[in-house]
Amino acid sequence: MCGIVGYTGPQSAVTPLIEGLRRLEYRGYDSAGIALGTPNTLFVEKRAGKLANLEEALGSASPEVHSGIGHTRWATHGGPTDRNAHPHLDNEGKLAVIHNGIIENYSQLKVELESKGHTFESDTDTESVAHLLSDLRKKHHGDLSAAMREAVQSLRGSFTLLAVHADDPETIVGVRRNSPLVVGLGVGENFMASDVAAFIQYTKRAVELGQDEVVTITPSSISITDLYGAEVAPREYEITWDAAAAQKGGFTHFMLKEIFEQPKAVADTLIGRLSDNNQILLDELHMNPDEIRALKKIVVIACGTAYHAGMIAKYAIEKWAKISVEVEIASEYRYRDPIVDSSTLVIAISQSGETMDTLMALRHAKASGARVLAVCNTNSSTIPRESDAVLYTHAGPEIAVASTKALLTQIIAVYLIGMHLAQVRGELSDQEVAHLYSQALELPGKIESILETVEPIRELTRKFAKSETVLFLGRNIGYPVALEGALKLKELAYMHAEGFAGGELKHGPIALIDSEIGTPVIAILPAGHEHGLDEKMLSNIQEVKARGARVIVIAEEGAMVVGAEHVIRIPIAPPIFQPILATVPLQVFAYEMAVARGNDVDQPRNLAKSVTVE
Ligand code: AGP
C-alpha cells in the first residue's frame, strides 16, 4: 500500500530516490517524503499530496549526498498530512524510518516510549519504530542492524521497514514481514524497494528477502541475517522485463497502454502450452497424474478483479475437468471453518502477489493441509513464494491501479489449468483439448479487432458521463463480466455501479431502474447459446427498458438485439471464452468515463495497486 525506496552509492541520492518513488507512486500517493544521509544530521523533506508536491518543495535545494530513503504513502494510521508523511525521525533528528504495512502494537509501544521521555510528532504507527530503534541503536553501540533485529522481535503486524542514521549515512537497514521488499545490486551502488520497478533502470540484478530477514546495504556490500544474527545467503535473480515496459510508451495513461497490450499478453500466456502430441504443458503445477486424479475439490481464493477471474475458473474447470470448484473472497475465507484437506487444490490468484487478504487465506488453506497453486503476474513476490507451485501469467508489469491485462491473462491461466486437469483425468480427449487450445489462440486477434473499433465507446461515454448510477447485467459466464464491468466503473469513474445476474433482477434490483433519469443498463448478451440464455437476456433487456432504462448491449456480431439504445459488437467466440472479449469494451467504457469526468485514471482516489494490509 506504500512505496518504499532506499539508495546508497555514488549518485546524488535525491535522483534515484525520486525516480524510484515515481515508479512506485501507483502503490500509494497521498503523501511522499525523503531522508538524505547528510553527516551528523539528516536532511528530511516530506509533503502531503502527490510526489510533485515533494519535488516542488525540494526544488534544487536538496544537498548533494549519496544515500537516503524515500516513501510514498497510502495512509492507514493518521491522515495524509505533512506531519504524518514518512520518513519519521527520533527526537535527535538523526535516525529516520519509513514503513509499509501496519504495526498492530504501536500504541502500546508509544506509551512505553513516552514513559522513557520520547516525544511524538505524528499520529502514525510508524513513528513508534523510529523512537524504539533510536534506543536500541544506543544499546547496541551504534549498530543499526542489531537494533533492527531486536526491534522487530517486539513488533506485531505486517511491515517493511527501512532505516538510516546520520552517524553512518551510507548504511541502510531494511526488514520485511508479510510485506514486499527487494534488493537491487548495482555496480558500486545498491538499492532497496517495494518493487523492482523502482530501480530496474539501474540494475536487473535483484535479491529476494524472506520473512523476518534483516538486510544491510552499503555502496559495496549486502548482508542478510535472520532476527538472531545468523547469516542468510542472498538469493539473487535476474529481472526479466525492462524499464521501457514500465513506461507509458506514448499512451496518455498506463491503463490505456495496458488495455492495448492485452492481445500480446494473452498470446504470451498461451504460447508453448500445447505439445506436438496435443498435451497441455503445465509442468509448473508440480502435480503428477495420480495427484491430479485424486483431486476432489478446487478452491479459488482472490480479491477484486482477480476474484472475477476465479468465478470464470469455476465455469471452465467444472465444465471440462468435472471437479467441484468453490470461489472464495479471500478476506472472508479464513474466518470460516472451510473444508479443505490433501484432496483439495487451492488456487490463489493475484496480479501483485502481495495482497495481504489473499496471502493470509493462502496460509490458512496450507495450514489445513491443502496444496496451493498461485496464479501470479509478479516474479518472486510473496504469494508465489509461499505456494507449492506457481503459474506465472505473462502480462508484463501492470502499473495502472485498475487491473486489465492481468485479468485477461489470469482467465487464460485458469483455462489452461482446466484443460490440463481435464486431459489428465480423461474428461477431455487430446483432440478436444487441441481444439479448445486452437480456439484460445484466436483470442488475441479478436481482442485486436475490438480495440480497432473503440471510437463508438468514446461517443457513448460522452452521453452517460453525468450519470450517477450504471447497472450491469450478465448471465452464466457473463455474470462475472458484469461484476468486473461494475468494479471498473466504480474504481475509475467513482460512480455507483452494480453488476447483477440477469435472472436476479426481478427479485429486487429492478426497483433501481428510474424512468425519470433513464438509468443506464449495460447488458452482456453472450451467455451460452446452448442454454438458450441469449433469449432470457433479451427478456431482461425488455424488462428494464419497459421501466425506462437506457440499454447498452454487448453483443456478438450477427446476434439479434432488440430494445437497445446502443449495441457494441464483439467477435463471435465459444461461450466459455467470451469473457475474454466481452470484458474489453467495459474496460474501455470505464477508462473513457474516468477521462470524461477528469479523474486520475492511473491512480484513482483512495486506491492502491497492491493492498498489502488486511
Ligand atoms: C482491480 O482493478 C483492483 N485494482 C483490485 O480489485 C485488485 O484486483 C485486487 O486488489 C487484487 O489485487 P491482486 O490481483 O494484486 O491480488
TrEMBL record:
It is an enzyme of class 2 (transferase). Its main location: cytoplasm. GO terms for molecular function: carbohydrate derivative binding; glutamine-fructose-6-phosphate transaminase (isomerizing) activity. Keywords: Aminotransferase, Cytoplasm, Glutamine amidotransferase, Repeat, Transferase. Residues 288-427, 460-604 form the SIS domain. The keyword Transferase applies. It is found in: Cytoplasm. It catalyses: D-fructose 6-phosphate + L-glutamine = D-glucosamine 6-phosphate + L-glutamate. Pfam families: GATase_6, SIS. GO terms for cellular component: cytosol. Its EC number is 2.6.1.16. PANTHER family: GLUCOSAMINE--FRUCTOSE-6-PHOSPHATE AMINOTRANSFERASE, ISOMERIZING (PTHR10937), GLUTAMINE--FRUCTOSE-6-PHOSPHATE TRANSAMINASE (ISOMERIZING) (PTHR10937:SF0). This is Glutamine--fructose-6-phosphate aminotransferase [isomerizing]. It comes from freshwater metagenome.
